[in-house]
UniProtKB/TrEMBL annotation:
It comes from Georgenia faecalis. Keywords: Amino-acid biosynthesis, Aromatic amino acid biosynthesis, NAD, Oxidoreductase, Tyrosine biosynthesis. Signal peptide: none annotated. Its EC number is 1.3.1.12. It catalyses: prephenate + NAD(+) = 3-(4-hydroxyphenyl)pyruvate + CO2 + NADH. SUPFAM superfamilies: 6-phosphogluconate dehydrogenase C-terminal domain-like, ACT-like, NAD(P)-binding Rossmann-fold domains. One of its GO terms (molecular function) is prephenate dehydrogenase (NAD+) activity. This is Prephenate dehydrogenase. Residues 13-292 form the Prephenate/arogenate dehydrogenase domain. Pathway: Amino-acid biosynthesis; L-tyrosine biosynthesis; (4-hydroxyphenyl)pyruvate from prephenate (NAD(+) route): step 1/1.
Amino acid sequence: MTPEDTPGLATTGPVKVVGAGLLGASVGLALSAAGVPVQLEDASPASLALARDMGAGTPATLTDPEPVLVVVATPPDVTADVVLAQLRRHPRAVVTDVASVKRIVVDEVLAAGPDAARYVGSHPMAGRERSGASAADADLFVGRPWVVVETPQSLPAAVLAVRALAVDLGATPVRLGADEHDDAVALVSHLPQLAASLVAARLVTAPDGALALAGQGLRDVTRIAASDPRLWASILAGNAAPVARALREVRGDVDALVAALDRAAEDGPLTPGAMAALADVVGAGNAGAARIPGKHGGAPRRYGYVSVLVPDAPGELGRLFSEVGEAGVNIEDLQLEHSAGARAGLARLAVLPTAVGPLEKALDERGWRVVAE
Ligand SMILES: NC(=O)c1ccc[n+]([C@@H]2O[C@H](COP(=O)([O-])OP(=O)(O)OC[C@H]3O[C@@H](n4cnc5c(N)ncnc54)[C@H](O)[C@@H]3O)[C@@H](O)[C@H]2O)c1
């Protein structure tokens, strides 16, 4: 994002960012790049210096002009305290937070009294599994939903300022209540994190030989298992009841699945009922996955797939992409699969279903090894 291509931001600044890690530094980078003055604060001098060096803003000082907006991007367990301290320290500023849980923050801020009118909670649905300013990105929020949680006391002007921040950073504001938000993220964010962690935890004692067989399925399912344990402990504890509810439902499904597998193991795979019970679980997964919105938040879309063997050599993937482009086909999504010890990777290109045949033919003619799906 550059000042030239972000004309007329509604957020004028100064903006103060408290907690200059992944989220805070990403906000700072995007606003600074658009010419908005950003003051940074962090409990860790090293994190603060890193965010400053990356261009996310300048460390806050006692002589700074008063911020018009304070963005609190600290871990959820300290967020309410930090929000309250900022409301007191800057008596005219709107204060928002970006914590991944909302009810615990909103309740504590509302309990503190009249300053709460200048507080509006928020949660950008953007992030990554790495923490800290070194993983920050000015474009982190582009095209993502940004949940805005106003309280019964929030001033309309405060709500507008937070919605404007979301829009200025390329996100789409979505209005939700705190409980509605917490239930939703328990299902679409916190449960997936736990599923990834639980599956990956099974690998700790797995034999090396078994791990050498790992393919893209395991990598897909465990990608977010690399998340920061401290931050996630704070998120999960902060949303304990909704997450426990979602997990209990999964436990019911797991119990039924284990019972069907036990029957198949004891009485043979063709024992009545066992096969249907197993197919039901996978079928329900198909139905759920089909409901996940497609690219840019659009309706779920079915793609066709073209798998191509790509030599493990510099420039080969780039050559494949340009030749797909020359064939007039847009790559909608991409998966790359590597096997331990292999000298080639498998690129699985998602394209519109009507493009599968022509693309396979075009790539074949150009000498690529197209692998049957
Ligand atoms: N990581 C994600 O993908 C993601 C996505 C959306 C929202 N969030 C939320 O954003 C917030 C920040 O997450 P993050 O991923 O940027 O974490 P992070 O660990 O990268 O950054 C947090 C920063 O807050 C600082 N900090 C901690 N306590 C502080 C205090 N009392 N005062 C000032 N600074 C303090 C830390 O030193 C650190 O630099 C969390 O509430 C998280 O739930 C995270």
